[in-house]
């Protein structure tokens, strides 16, 4: 992967146009480390630290200079004992157990739904505030499902030091990326109906899927049969319907997350959403083609202005040079890019828009959003 | 490309499930050749024979056992003199000139819009029936725009031997693949509005673009900067808005082709269409996510039955094994595959469906459709 992920840095044409994370080198002086490992600040735990999102948790915590008193890196027995480098120090990964959460203020979970279901409540019981990246608790009533730029009020009153634990759910990556762009427009003209088609990266299925895409691509280029371990079919130079299980109604679970999570995050049970989720041979950023139907009129110039002023959004919409958002351009970036903003010719007047959105699935789609939630807890 | 296109054959999981062209070996006995180069049958000309579609014209003519008295292979001065192998014979490519069409009954054009504009009318003048794969004449009033399975009546009365030339336009590849699936449903329940998002292969930009995708992929895997000649940005492990010029209204030309050609082919000026056209790193087959709004109710089981019985359509819709159409599976195939057939939850009752369609862009999207048109001229 090294070569490939690096190439994603090197060859992104408009790399500089997107907002970079607060530019802080990952290698920090020991002074700096002493400063962040200070007496004040919360005690953190990162669950699933050896995974793609777990690793991204660490780099986002560093990039954003997240203050903490102590940090505990947790993973399964299999990974326990491994050493992980963080802020120029070497940490030993500890095995996740019920005792892991003694004295923990904030626990960032990204170890899959079953781990969250088993250990999330235990962590809360012990007084930790859990920010969970899995789908385990997203639709549970009373559990805030939060995109900080969209519905911060949903977690009102939940703070470190309030004397009790709590659960906060991180939405699905495709939902976060879509709603980052759709919400500012929704606030202005109220979205009645949304038709979404996704172009989802390998990273959504984890680091192993990214490795498999690279391996398969090498194999296909050499005329060899592709190795299919993570996905049951060829991914290289191909695309396929999202691998999530397909439900009774014909939608797959990924698509239903977009339908249901949108309603909960917008607190609008009437909004109509349909989605078709497709896996494309791209490494780590998702793209989404979003068709919007509004209750009130909204012309494209107003929409463009609204998006230019929206937090976390970068408008890339240069028609003359045919420069619009691409997954490569947002890879390893915080900003969600929006372009192809245009009046939908298939709707009357200014009641419809088509937009194209790209966001880093590992970063804003997962780790960054969770750390932003954690920042609101301080 | 050899290794890669071959790998597309070898590793397509469900290769056998799609209808293969009339299985006829490309190497034919000289008897067979004498038989097809007989006194009867039309005299053919293939314009742009050295291009990706031009080459596909030849293999489709062979696969379908198209009868002809003589065949003339035409290209630009640059390619003139090259030898092309066809039906086990070696043919010399001739330079395209005004005289090329003397005595030609049917001329298959795929050499770009400007060549069609210059030489199409000349060929017609000389009594040839031109089947043009470019966009030059598609929207010209009086020029039939034909998908044989959809609107054969549009070319009624145009036959070889009617004593005059004529122009027939081959629709845009994305339009053909979309309407192959949408038309049978439209006939049953009348499509009011269609929202399309495409996943388009390199082949749509020609053989050079397919080579560039393969070259870039090798370069990126080696950590080298990708060569960007055909496209101005990295295509390997990336995707981007279709490279067609963007118009005043914010749609690119590819998208407007889908909007306008659908109206003409369906002879329905009221049908509402919006499209977002995206280039994905796939070699030669397009995929399309299509959301349909109907005037009359149409439940998904009826829709599936209608599609199973539709000519040129293969339904691949296995929810339990998550097996749906993929570009790889339809590559080098005639059939257009349809799956993910489901009631659209964002519409009331049975007035909406979501479907996912894949078709070989070079074959049904171009060469096959043109040869099918030619067959109707006999």
UniProtKB/TrEMBL annotation, chains A, B:
The keyword Metal-binding does not apply. It catalyses: L-aspartate 4-semialdehyde + phosphate + NADP(+) = 4-phospho-L-aspartate + NADPH + H(+). It is an enzyme of class 1 (oxidoreductase). Residues 43-158 form the Semialdehyde dehydrogenase NAD-binding domain. Its EC number is 1.2.1.11. One of its GO terms (molecular function) is NADP binding. Pfam families: Semialdhyde_dh (PF01118), Semialdhyde_dhC (PF02774). InterPro entries: Asp_semialdehyde_DH, Asp_semialdehyde_DH_beta, NAD(P)-bd_dom_sf, Semialdehyde_DH_NAD-bd, Semialdhyde_DH_dimer_dom. Homodimer. This is aspartate-semialdehyde dehydrogenase. The lineage of its organism: Eukaryota, Viridiplantae, Streptophyta, Embryophyta, Tracheophyta.
């Amino acid at each position: 992967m090294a070569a490939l992920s690096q190439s994603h840095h090197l060859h992104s044409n408009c790399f500089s146009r997107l907002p970079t994370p607060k530019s802080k080198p990952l290698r920090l002086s020991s002074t700096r480390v002493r400063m962040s490992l200070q007496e004040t600040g919360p005690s953190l735990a990162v669950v699933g630290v050896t995974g793609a999102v777990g690793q991204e948790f660490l780099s986002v915590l560093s990039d954003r200079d997240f203050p903490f008193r102590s940090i505990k890196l947790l993973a399964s027995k299999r990974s326990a004992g491994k050493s992980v480098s963080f802020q120029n120090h070497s940490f030993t990964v500890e095995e996740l157990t019920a005792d892991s959460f003694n004295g923990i203020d904030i626990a960032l979970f990204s170890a899959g739904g079953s781990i969250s279901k088993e250990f999330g409540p235990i962590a809360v019981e012990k007084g930790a505030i859990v920010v969970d990246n899995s789908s385990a608790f997203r639709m549970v009533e009373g559990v805030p499902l939060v995109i900080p730029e969209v519905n911060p009020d949903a977690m009102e009153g939940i703070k470190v030091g309030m004397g009790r634990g709590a659960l906060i759910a991180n939405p699905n990556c495709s939902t976060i990326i879509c709603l980052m762009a759709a919400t500012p427009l929704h606030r202005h003209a109220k979205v009645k109906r949304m038709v979404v088609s996704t172009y989802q990266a390998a990273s959504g299925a984890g680091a192993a899927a990214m490795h498999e895409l690279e391996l398969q691509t090498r194999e296909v280029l050499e005329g060899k049969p592709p190795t299919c371990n993570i996905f049951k079919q060829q991914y290289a130079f191909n695309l396929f319907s999202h691998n999530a299980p397909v439900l009774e109604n014909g939608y797959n679970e990924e698509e239903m997350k977009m339908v249901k999570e949108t309603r909960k995050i917008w607190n609008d049970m009437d909004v109509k959403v349909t989605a078709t989720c497709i896996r494309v041979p791209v490494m780590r950023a998702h793209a989404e083609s979003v068709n919007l139907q509004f209750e009130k009129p909204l012309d494209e110039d107003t929409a463009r202005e609204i998006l230019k002023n929206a937090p976390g959004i970068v408008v890339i919409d240069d028609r003359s040079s045919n420069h619009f958002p691409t997954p490569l351009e947002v890879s390893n970036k915080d900003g969600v890019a929006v372009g192809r903003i245009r009046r939908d010719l298939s709707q009357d007047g200014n009641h419809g828009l088509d937009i194209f959105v790209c966001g880093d699935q590992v970063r804003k789609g997962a780790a960054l959003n969770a750390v932003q939630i954690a920042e609101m807890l301080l």
